Structures are given as C-alpha cells and as structure tokens.
Fold each of these.
Amino acid sequence: MGLVLLNVGIIHRIGPHRFNVKLARALTSEGLVTLRMDLSGQGDSSAPDDALPYDQQAVADLQEAMDHLQRICKIEKFAIVGICSGAYNALAAALADNRVTALWMLDGYAYPTARSVWNRYTWRLREASLRALESWTRKLARRTVRAIRNVTNRSTSQELWDFGRCAPPREVFGRDVQTLVDRGVAVCFVYSGSMRWIFNYPEQLREAFSEFNFVDRAKCEYLPQADHTASTLATQQQLIRSIAAWLHDALASTTTRSNAP
Amino acid sequence: MSRVPHIEAELIRVFSDVSGLPVAEFTSEATFADQGLDSLVLTQASLEIERVFGLKLRFRRMLEDLDTVTRLAALLDRELPADRFAHTPVPVPEPLVVTAAPAAAKMLVREVQGYSFVHQIIQLQIQLMSQQLALLSGNPALVVAPSASIANGGSEPPLIKSPLDKPLGAVPRPIPQSGEAAFADSVQRNMEPPYDTIDRKPPPVCYAGQDATHDRVDFAMPTNATEQAIAAIWIRLLNVAQVGRNDNFFNLGGHSLLALRAVHEIQRITGEKIAVSRMIFESLGQIATSISTHPVKAAPGISILANEVHAESDAASGLSRSLAITPVRFGQPVPSLYGVFHPSGLRNARPHAVLFCNPFGQEAVRIHRFFGVLAHRLARAGVACLRFDYHASGESLGDDCEADLDRWVQDVVAADALLRQNAGVHEVDWVAPRLASALAVRASAQAPQRPRQLVLWEPVVSGARYVDHLLEVHASVVADLPDGGVLTGDEEILGFGVSRRLLEQMRAVVPADYQLARTRRVTLVASHQRATDADEWVAALQRRGVAVQRETLSLDFDWTSEEAFNTALVPTAALNLLEAVLKGDQLE
C-alpha cells in the first residue's frame, strides 16, 4: 500500500507546521511508501491548460499521483490522508477510484445532532457566566426548539460549510461513506476540538448516521484537545501515532482480504 | 443609556460592509451562519472589528460563542473602555444648519440626538434635506456627502458611521462654492458601491516588463466570452493591466475582500454564484469552464465585459511557454538540502540570478507562495532563480529541533554556489526577508563570491525582540487552542520544534551584525519606522563603500498567520517592488 498526502488548504505540500513531512517520514521509517504532493495550482504545481474545476481537478491530480506510484513502485492499493480541504478531496478521490483502500480524514464534513447542539449551548452557559444566563434563558427555548427541529427534520438542504465549501446533504454523505465501506475501504474520521461547535462528542457520527451500518465499520475519533492544523508538537505526535496504528490495521485487513480463499 | 444598541449598529455596519449585504437584512439575534456569512466573510469582519473597536478577535469565535451580533455587542460592551461609544450628542455641522436649514429642520436636528440606530437614520435624512435646501438657497457649505443609497433614492438604510471612529465608507469631502455642479460632483464621486470606497484606485499597475504578454509563466489570453468577462472583472478589481486564463486571483495580488467582490460581480454578469474558495485554488480558465453561461441571462453582461478585453492571439515570442522548474537536492557531505531551480528562458537569459532565502518557521510557510510567484516572474524575464529549504526545515532533511543558524548560514553559501553553477552566472542577488536577512549578511561574509545585491526585507535586527514576538504569538495561539491544547513541554514555536541553542542564536542577532554585509549593494525594504531604525548600520555600510538603497513598503501582511484570508497571499506592492529591484541587469 502507498500513502498519498495532499495539501491542507493553501499550504504547500509540507503541510501545516511541516506536519505532512513529519508524518511521511515517520511512516516511511516503518516501511510505507508515501507521496506528498501539491495539487494543481497549489504549492509548486501549475495548473494544466485544460484544468477542470478545482474539486474535479483535485480528484484527477490524486489519481495521477496514484498512477505515478503504481508505475514506479508497483503499488496498486493506496491510502489517502486528508486534513480539512484535504479531507474533502480525499473523500472524493476515494469515491472515484477503487484503488483507494484506506481513507483517513481530519475535520472533514461533520453533521450535527440534537445532542451536539445541546452541548454547544450548555458550553456557552458554562463559559459565559451568570450574565449570559439571563439572555440565554430568554432565548434558549426559541433557539433550541428551532435547532432541534432542524436536526430532527434532517432536511436534505441542511448543510454545513467552511470557506465557501458546502457539505453534501446528510443522506448523500451517508450513502457515499456506506459505498466506500461496502467496497472494503477502511475509513477513519477524526474530529478535533476546533470543530467542537459542530462535532463535540465521540458518538456523534454514530448517532447522526444511525441508519447506516458503516457506523459499526468505520472508525471515528474525537480529539477535543487537538486543533485543526496540529499547532502543537504534542498534537502532531498524537496524530502521527494514531495514523500509523490505523494504517497498520488497515494494511493488515487488506492483506487478510487479499489472502482469503 | 446603554451603549449596546450603538455597538450593535456599528457591528451591523461592519458586517454589511464586508459582506455586501444590505444593513436592513441583518438581524442581531440570528447567528451569522444562519444569515449566510461564511468563514471568509467572518475573517474579514474580525479584521474590521479590530480596526473599528480595537479588539482582536479570532474569526472562529464568530462561529462558536460569539455567533450573533447581540453576543458580540455584549462582549464589546464588557471589553471596551467606558468612554468608547459613550452617549454623547452627535455634533451637527453648524454652518449647514444655521445658514441653510429652515427653522423646522434646525429644530428637529437639535432634538434628535443620541446613538440610537433609528435616530441616526433620521438625522442623516435631515442632513440630506438640509444640504438640498442649502444648495437651493445658493449658499452651500461644508457638506457630508450622502451615501449612494440615499442619493439614488434607494430604500436601503445608509451606512452609519460612528463619529468617534474612522469612516469605513464614503469620506466627507468639502465641495467648492459652486452650488449644484459641485454637489452633483460630490455625489458622483461618492456614489460608488460601499466597498469601492475602501480602495481609492490609483492608475493601473502594470507588471514590470508587461510590454509583452508573455512575461508570466503559462500566460494565455482569455479565449472565450466568459473568460474575457471574468478577466475584465479581475482587471478592475486587481487594478492590473492584463489577466490571462491561467492566472490565479490571489497570485495577482488579490485578497479575500476583493475575492468577495469578484464573486458578486461574476454572479451579476453570469448568473452563477461560485464559492469564494475557488478563487484561491483555481485559475480563471478553470472558473470559467465551470460556469454555465445561459445566453438569455448572461449574454448581455458577458458581451459588454468581453469587449473590454481584446482577445489576441498568443503570438510566438521566441520564449517557451512553460519554463519547467526543477527540484534539486544538494549539500555536503550528504545532499540533505532541497531546492527548486527556476531556469531562465534561453533567449533572454540575464547575466545574474536570484537566490531566495527563507525566513524562519511559519514565516517561511507564509512566504512560500509569494516566493514562487516572484521566482516565476523573474524566470520569465530571464533571471534564473533558486528557492531552497535550510537543513531541518521544509523539504530538507532533519527534524525541526536540529535547526541551527550557523548551519543555515552554510546552507545559504551552498545554495549560492549551486545557483551559480546551474544558471551559469557570476552575479547573484539574494532576497532575504526577516530572519533570513541576518543569515544573509553573515553568509555574504563567508561566501567565496559575494552576492551582487542583498535585498533585506523587513530584516530582523534585534533577535531578542524577534524571539519575544514569536513567543508572544505562540502563546496567543496556544491560548486559543481547544481546552488549552496539549504541550509536550519541549520548546516549540507555532508548531515547529526549536532547540534552546537555536533560540540563543536567534536572540544573539544584533544590529551591528548588518554592518558586516559584504556586497555591492544593500536594498532595504521596510516600513518607514523600521527603515529609520536601520540608520546606524546603514551609515556604517555606506562608510565601507556599500551602496544602500531604501525602499519604503508598508504592508498589511501577517508573517506568522496561518489563515488563508486575512492578508493578501501575494501582496502586489511587494511583488512589483521586488521584481523591479531584482530584474535589473545593472545596479543603479
């Protein structure tokens, strides 16, 4: 298996705080082939004349990266690790290409539940003191009812967004992940504390997508003290250890399936 | 009287200005998310809130605990000094009221005071009426130009500015004593969309050497009506002379606020709303490709704008369209250093090359895109370039904590030698921002061949102050981490491990170090204040016969920021200045 690491936001291929470099070198020391890349138009990569819209081009770029590793290293199965915008692109590439057998995403798409909304409001209460309690008391009923109604309705138009990118409707996302899991892709969702106003307890993914059985087969971690770009060495080390362990399990699982009679 | 309503009004004005949405559409109690404000807009808003209120605020809090105008206002009410937004009467321009306003209006103006939102609307309308009466009476005086919406007779509430703060939008201007014509002129000059009043448009900035259309890598003219229309929009907003289909908005000097405007304009012309993030990641051609141009709704707008951009054939100029960059590994005894070599076009190769020296840590990440764009432009102009990473940084081998300034000085020397060899030149200019300036002056004294020119951009002359600044920024970031974050206890700055030795080396940088620069010319690029701080060592250099050229450049560029949107990724002023300084064959 080979690992592809892609851009996080606008940061070039070294990753935030050189995280991609540190991760790649840690995994390489354990024998995993890794490729860090700049997508078209980012870092040192130029965009081709016939470039597709960004979302589509990112998938094409990742497929080219896999083609390249396949040619030079004779690797046919790939894992993709994506953070933030990288998570979105990684998911899209996994859906588009059967060579992706493992997908790790930090702070990708997230979907609220009634409990996550409740957590959000109660945090506000704990942190805001009695003064806020006055206004909170006046407005809580209205907002909570509205929020819970929105969540329980689970409207297909409900979307979350970041930097202008809209999350797909909940049902679409659920079906996509189910497709990957049914295909045998090892999927790991990780959410940092930076997402806590949207994702804020370990069981949230399971509860948000309870009708899909991928919740029992995909891994989900909530790391409340981690942040979006791994701004501390401790977070970087924690994530690297987590990814290494997960990849080890994913690789073992892939090997088992390959060797099965 | 509580000042909260006024704070709320001011906040609504801020959000209206940065988002382009009418003030009337904002609700104090709905969350920003519910009102359609994304993180891009909120980032801009946080900057504007800092400017207006003096309170630094991370935009993510507006997605979290401060997600409504009401909550924000409550925070500001708690945090601001008591005298800010205190209830004081709004001063009424006496000449306007006394000489022109009828008695009734005069009485009404003096009755309507205070910072209530409604009162201010009424007051502004009365002022407008008074202006009109003043002109009709033939005795104009100093007037406050009305907002575009009122001048147009529109229904939008006007922008409200606190008299205690700098106005964001139209600036009151005196008009000459010539009655109606002057008033009309004033209205016309102020009758711009709110966001246009932020940028006073200077003459278009041409790229240095933009007499040819092929100075930029992979430049290609827009090829269809949609591309031309978008190019016309970008030309206006970016104030550049030309935009190609392979250009990226941010690489041309755009920033998030301009991107917002571009998105609105593109939607107005084409009917398609695109995500703002696409302006960061995509070229003009990519954006145009995805826009479906329905002839009925888009054609008129597109055809008008398309006519403004003359499509020219991409005439062969003798230059290769694509100057491929080459990754290189170098260094002794092990090639542990990584670099990217930009060869010059063969037919126009200049006799000198440019070496880019990175600043430290997060500043190097921040400047990467800028260096890439500048290197491409110089290479297209015939100047070969080399960008590289020091040992234990970027792509080069070594863990963060192995970073060592003494070794980095040697890395600069090695990179210089490599560039001379690869480019086949005898003269090399070094570009060295921030801490790299200190490295460059030391390396210049050790290099077998001195650099022709040292371009020192906002040099770090007091290492102690610099380290304190970095630690302060780091502490601020850590304080904002979820649940206080987790730290290993090792030394680190903004996600990069640092050794005690490195910190000591950095603290040891002093102004006197700069007197040792060995070069023909030092070009000091700095804000006015920083340039003044350099007087002593500049004088010392000049006494040694080193030419010193000073370029004043004041940029709103956050060197340590991780955010994509709060400052221009590739500030045009810096790009054009450095290109001009580095492209010349002869030092003036």
Note: Chain A touches chain B through 59 residues (CB under 8 Å).
Amino acid sequence: MSASLSPNGQAHHEEPNYLNVTHTLKSWLLTGDHKRIAILYLISISVFFFLGSTAAGLVRLELTSPTGWLMENDTYNKAFTAHGVIMIFFFLIPSIPAVFGNFLLPIMIGARDLAFPRLNLLSWYLYMIGGTLALIGILGGGVDTGWTFYTPYSSLYSNSQVTITILGAFIAGFSSIATGINFIVTIHKMRAPGMTWFRLPLFVWAHYATSLIIILGTPVIAITLLLVIAERVFRLGVFSPELGGDPVLFQHLFWFYSHPAVYIMILPAMGVISEIMAAFCRKRVFGYSFVAFSSLAIAGLSFFVWGHHMFVTSQSMYQGFFFSLVSFLVAVPSAVKVFNWTATIYKGRVYLDTPMIYALGFIGLFTIGGLTGLYLATLGTDVHLTASYFVVAHFHYVMVGGAILGFLGALHFWWPKMFGRMYPQGWGKFNAMLVFAGFNITFLPQFVLGFNGMPRRYHYYYLYPEFQVYHILSTAGASILAVSFLIPAVYLTWSLIKGPRASANPWGAHGLEWEVASPPITTNFVTTPIVRDEVYAYDEVDEYEQVQGTEEIVHPTRTEDKH
Amino acid sequence: MNYPIVPPRASNLALEHDIVFYTITALTVFFTLLVGVLVVFFTMRYRAGNRVNRSRPVHEHLPIELAWTITPLLLGIMVFLAGAKLYVRQRTPPPEAMEIFVIGKQWMWHVQHSNGVRENNTIHVPLGKPVKLVMISQDVIHAMYIPAFRQQFQVYPGRYTEMWFTPTQVGKFHLFCNMYCGTQHSEMGGYVYVMPPDEFAEWLDSGGNDVRPTGFAAKGQQLFEKLNCGSCHGEKDTPQGTSLRGLLGKERRMKDGTTLVADQDYLVRSITHPYEHLVEGYGQEMPAYDTLTPEQVLQLAAYVRTLSSEGKASSEDALKTHSGSAATGDDNPAFGAYEHLKRMDQE
C-alpha cells in the first residue's frame, strides 16, 4: 500500500515497541493495548491447551486396553469431561479471535486500538476468572458430565463439581461477548480512511461474522447454564421431569448456542487461511467477495441447524427434515471457501514456508472434516452414527484439523510480527508435516470405529475387544500429535531469546500489519494510514522479472530466508 | 488380531442405510481427492521460481463461483432426500410390530416381553418380524443403540419413545447405551439375540429359558461360592467349620452342652449371629455375616437346605436349576425363617 506510514522497514531493537515500552507487571495487567492483551491471552490459552491436551492424553492412554489400566470409571469420565470443557470453552472459542483477532484486527484496518480497550482488558479478566473457577471444579474433585452438561444428569444426578464448572463456563461466555462487541464496533467505526468494506482483509470479515455469532448465541448458553445451576442448587424444575421439567429442552437450548459455537471456532481459522493463502501464493484470494460473504452466510445459517444434533431425540420427524436440509445449505459456503482457496494457488507464486504448510494441511483436513459432516447432516445415516466415534473423528477433523491447524498457521505467520523474531523454518516445516501425519493416524481409525458402532465416552469396551486395534492405532497417532505440540513450544521459546530479528515484512506479504514495525509500537501507526489500494494487491510484480528471475528477485522484501 | 471393517447388516434398515452411507463415502472420497490433487498439483506447478505461465491471473469468475456453489448444493439436496426417505422408515414402525418394553436405568437395560418374560441387558427377538421397543428411563437420559440394525433412539425419564426394526439375520449383536449416563455408562450394554420365529416362540412360552427367573437356592449357591463359604463348610467337617451336608433336621450338640435341632431358624441365625450357638469343638471362627440382606440370608439358607435333602436336590441339581432346566419347587422361602428375619430387622 502506497500510504504514508510509520517509519518502519528495518526496525532496530533499540526502538520502543509495545513489548519494551514498559516492563512492570502492573503495566501488563492494567494494559489497554490490544496487542498486550493478545499476548496475555496467548499465554493463558496455551496453559489451558496444555491442560486440555494432558487430559486427552490420559483418555487415549486409558483406551489402549479394553478393560482400562490407569483409572476407574469415574476418573475416566472426569478426564474426558476435563478435556472437552477446557478445550472448547477455554481454548478453541477464545483461541484465534482473542489472540490474533485482538492483535491484528485494529492494525489490519488501520486503527490504533480496539474501540473499547478497557472492555477488552475486562474480557481477559472474565476469561481468567471463568477459567480459574472451571479449573477449581475440574482439578478439585472433577466434573463427570461431559462438556455437554446434559440434564437431568448434570442437574440432579451427578455428584461431581458441576456447579462451579458451569459457573466458570458462564463467566467465560461474557468474555466472548465483550470481545465480539469490541470487534463489531471497531470494524464499523474505526477503519482508516480508504479502508472500505471490500478492502477489508478476509481475516477481518471472518472475525466480523464470528462476532455476530458470539453476541447472538452466547447469551443463550449463558441463560441455559444458569438454569442448570438453578435446577441443581435450588431444585427449580426446568429440565428434569421429576421436577416438572423437560430434558429435551436442554438439548435444544444447548445446541442453539453450541452448534454456532463450532463456527465461532472455525470461521476465524478460515480467515487465517485466506490471509496465508494470499501471502504465500502472492496473489489476491480468488473470489474475494464469495469468500467474504460465505462467512456471513455461515454465520446466518449456523443458527438454524442446531436440531441436527437431535435426530434420535423426541424432536419431531418433520423438524428433522428442516434441520437436515439447512445443514446441507450451511455446508455449501464452506465448500465454496475450499474451492476458492484451491483456485487461489492457480497461477500464484507459491512459497512453501511454515505457515503455508499449515494452511495446505488445513485445507486437506478441513475438507475431510466438512465432508464427513454430511454423514451426520443426513437424517438416515446420523441415526446410526450419532454419538459414535464417527462423530468424534468428524469434529476433531474440524476442530483440530481445522481450528488448531489454523491457530498454528496464524502463530507461525504472525509470530515475527508479534515478537519481532524469526523461528527456524526447518523445524517449523517439519513440525507442520508431523502434525498432519499424527493427526490423521489419530483420527482416521476413529471413523472406522464409529461406523462399526463404538460409542463415544466409553471407558471399558471389554465386551467389544475387537475395537482395540483401532484404539491402539489412534493412541499411537496421539503420541505423535503430542510431540508435534511440544516441538513448537521449544523452538518458539528459543526464537524469543535467540531468534534472528524479523523485518517489518519478513514474508513479503501485503497488508497494513506488514507495513508497521515488528513488533509494532504501542499506537501501531505514527500517523493514521490512508489506504489507496486494494487488499492483496500482489500483482504489480513484473511478469519478466517473475519468469526470468530467481527466487531472490521475485522475493525482494524477504530479509530472513529459510534456515 | 481380529478387527472389524464393516458392521454386520442385520435388520431391514441396514441395507438402505449402507447405500446412503456409501453414496456419501463416494462423494467424500471424490471431493477430497479432487481438492487434494488440485492443491498438490497447483502447489508444485506454481512454486516460486518455476518457469510457468502466470499471465492474466483470474481473481473473480462468476460462472465458476456459481458452478461450485450450485453443484454441491444439488448433490447435497439429493443426499438429503435419500437420508430423509430412510429416516421416515426408521421412525415409522409398522402397526403390526411386536412390542417389547424397555426400561433404561443407571446402568442396565430392563426388558419385558408382552407375556411378562423379563430379561436384563439382553433382548430376544424373532427373525423377520417387525419389533417395536417402547422405551422409558427411570433416571437420566439413555440411548438404545444397536449398530448391526443401524438403529438408535434416546430414552428419557418421564416420556415414552419408540424404536423399531425387523431383524434379518440370526445371531447375537451388540446393544449399547449411547447417551452418557454416569459412572458405569460404558458397561450399560449387552446383546440382541435374533432367533428363528419358532425358536423364539418356544423361548417366550417357556419363560425365556436362558434367563429364567433364578431360583432361591441357585442364587444362594452363587452367594455361597462368592462368599467362599465352602472353604470351611466343605464335604466333610474341617477344623474351621462343620460340613453342611445333611444338616437340616439333625440334632446338634452345642459347646455349652445343650442340644438343638438344626431347623430353618437355626440356619438363618447361624449366618448372621454365628456365636449364639457354637457347635461342640468349634470356637469363634466364623465372621458374622450380618451385612447380608435378609433376602441373601434366605437364599443361602435355601441352598443349605438343598444340601440336606437326600438325592434329588444335590448341589448339582441346584446348579442345573440355575442354568435353566426344569423349574423346581425350591423357590418357596421358609416362612418361619422369613418371620425370624423380619423380627431381626425390627431389632
């Protein structure tokens, strides 16, 4: 962009930036800077990710034997609940929006900060309070309801720490809402001059759609969770027939939020992939407006598919038709995105750096995750497959293969921007492929398990020992996956201390965030930028230079090369 | 090692399910390969530094966008229709379907046939006849899931739900609880037994032979073995305890010099309060089994009775009763003992 911007380019490490401007703990804990809040979130969700992964590891280890060998029934039930609650409420939902959305959204639209910096800080505190309460429940006794908290088990029958854990999820919901409001207001009101709606990066569109879902959906789950607490603590009959309630009502209310929540987790990742594809193909994303509007279409339709979780409940058969049909409709915009990303590569100039490998991995895994969703949107096949390992495999392809690969891609793409340091590309690429391999070994066998009728949330399967082979395979894959999550922790920590300095635009990408220093100054820009060109304007490179040139010539802004 | 690739296809719904399933599988494989191959091919071909024609790149192309919007939409609607047709079948039991009542509770399935025959965690059904399970839960939500039949439905407290199928293959198939229901959720399962109709009718008429209500004595024998009573009370007297063979009705000499006739009352009392009447030559060896329920004590006593009746009711016979031969009259509890236990409970 030919706008007049901050003096950047070769940022010297003496220059003040948002990281070194102050050093006290207080300056971090009371910061209003969206970038510092993003770092606070990055640290906290990493801790939750570690805890959630540990629980997953315990579950996978236990399942290598049909009779179990590590724990009792109750312990196992608490382990898978801990995995679900932590990963969904305290990692996946906040992950990309709270870290990369917070950090990048204002910079991408040319703003100095989000619209409400203090609300932003409040959202982190609410997240931490919610997370702490949930951890008190999970570690101090444990919860055994599954992350879905189905009534009347959760409200009247479970003897575990349900109330405090639900309270934690309830409070964390307000953290989401605060972030969602902040993003929407910021995108509407704080775009720099010239940053029209159709010059917005697709990452911003994705976060706009996500925020809509958050502010419309989260209040519903908040009320629902409070009603569970009311029934559990005050025996107010809402969901339990013993008290005059309706157990299926909970499923409706729960999935009214929790299915859109799936899109809260995946849409930001899709935004990340659009950015990475454009940057590493050096090309405008194919069908920009289709990709942008598909995010909004997903957000809108996502509120009318919740009943596809309930095809084997007492929900009417005719409601089933409606929810199944709309579920097929919501699959279309996702397919459109995948096709557009694929077409983006065509006639691009592809650099296979670490973020790009994650993005390509995302496309593969998300395609499988999305297509296997069709089995579950289809009424007749869902009757057999629902609540089996097929579902487990499907949503892990979307949540891990999609959301977490998107998160890792974002982390590797914007890491130099956030910390001003590069990481070793060799390790990065190797690890991206390791994640891909480990992931498939873990979850492909689970499709077979599910088709053969292995129910999810089963501790013992000694009556069905024939399933053991697949469980062992899955656990072997999970071990690879575990290693592939530890490797980046090591080389990224190394990068923080010893990594080579990153330039303002180490990838040769296009976008306002690549025109400010790495790391940016507290106000992001010295003067408000004026946007004069289109987003992803990659095509000025001379045709001659590109055909005749070497990699170095077509890659003029790259200062850090592959290691 | 034995591992399944596909589940057995054992109901009228299974084939239609699998046709829809494999249709979606074909679409999944096709589109995954399409995207995968194109991504890999484009990535290799257009890698930076490759001398390829990149002239006139396209960024927008409405016909292409419409094509790849409408094609998946139409394919999706076709799959939707096929799935909906199957779903209507799955959720519409024929009026002539035979009803079986199912109660789910933490953590077992209690099944009752129309003539009153009951079974737990198993369902016996006839081949080729439509069967409708009428289900309700006693506590939390459960789900009845029979993969071989491709059929599943949730089971609620306070509300009846139905699930139907026509078995098409004789055999034994898994049934699961597929809605997480607490501690022993994973053990809340069992088997569906599909029998030829004549065998099923015989099974039903004879009161469900392999799950016939177990006699008191047989239950007592199970308990006798479980508590390991036989290690002291064996075929012959041991230093630890007397043999119980032929005990009933015998006169016993007690340590305190008195005698009494071993009757029901004595049997029962000796289980729960063994030191009240110690037989001559024995000390306070036996722990008092006063944590047993009155019913369990009665069962034990009934079993010990069978050890005393000459010939016809040896322990082997008791075992036979358990495994399901002819029903015998040993189900009558000793009423005297029952009265005694009631007294004991009131104490």
Note: Chain A touches chain B through 101 residues (CB under 8 Å).
